[in-house]
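ok so i was messing around last nite and threw this chain in just to see what happens. nothing serious, just curious
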Amino acid sequence: MFSNDIADYPDGIVLPVDKPYRWTSADVIRKIKWAACRHFGKKNLKVGHAGTLDPLATGILLVCIGPATRRAEELQASPKEYLAGVCFGATTPSYDLEKEIDRTFPLDGVSQESLLSVLPSFVGEQEQIAPLFSAKSVDGVRAYETARRLLREARAKGDTFDPGDILQSSRINIYGLELQRFNEQFQAPEPIPATEGRGRINVADVRGYSLKHALIRIACSKGTYIRALARDLGETLGSGAFLGSLRRTANGGYGEQDILPLETVLEMLG
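result:
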């Protein structure tokens, strides 16, 4: 529990919240800000996060309250770790399960051995092109807004979605990649419709597709898109790939041992 006086926290508060599946980072901030403003009796209390997470990702979302919002940029710049489930044999426009599969690919070149052989080539400083379905700004417009328009236009014409060369590459650093598990056949879970349960983000149903699956632990710099890494791994192996799951396990000096469920945070601010 926190005291009711924000002045008791001169450096502010940093909370490593476990972002729920199918919630946007903004959803979490809105929920915590409402609770924090009520708890501390402040109408304009600053609340923000240090590094967004995709809606279908879970794990550490650093929520900064009060003066701690001044540390957001510093925390966001720190190294991060993820546990990523990469599905091989198909692609989606968003490179994750937020969009339906649009193309399938052969799996002849995808195996545990071939994946282990290419992983080292992805370690180190490199140029990476972010997914078009991302929060990057292009000429003052969020990339995902442009992506949604292009996808609608492609579907209306019956064409395949092509992101083109809209985004420029960015310099990133992948410090380490470790294959945790490889499955010759991906057992896709039954998706939860967006109208049921918590969260409003749709999850594509990929049951019935022939896919291979790898669970990879990733240590990387700020600005690294794991969905883009999945895309690039698929292309390198002569197939397609997308992100089936993602969990951030470390950020800003916080790890899994520090993480707080959203329900716990709301109780602390109750």
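not much to say yet. Helices lie at 25-40, 72-76, 112-118, 143-157, 226-236, 262-268.
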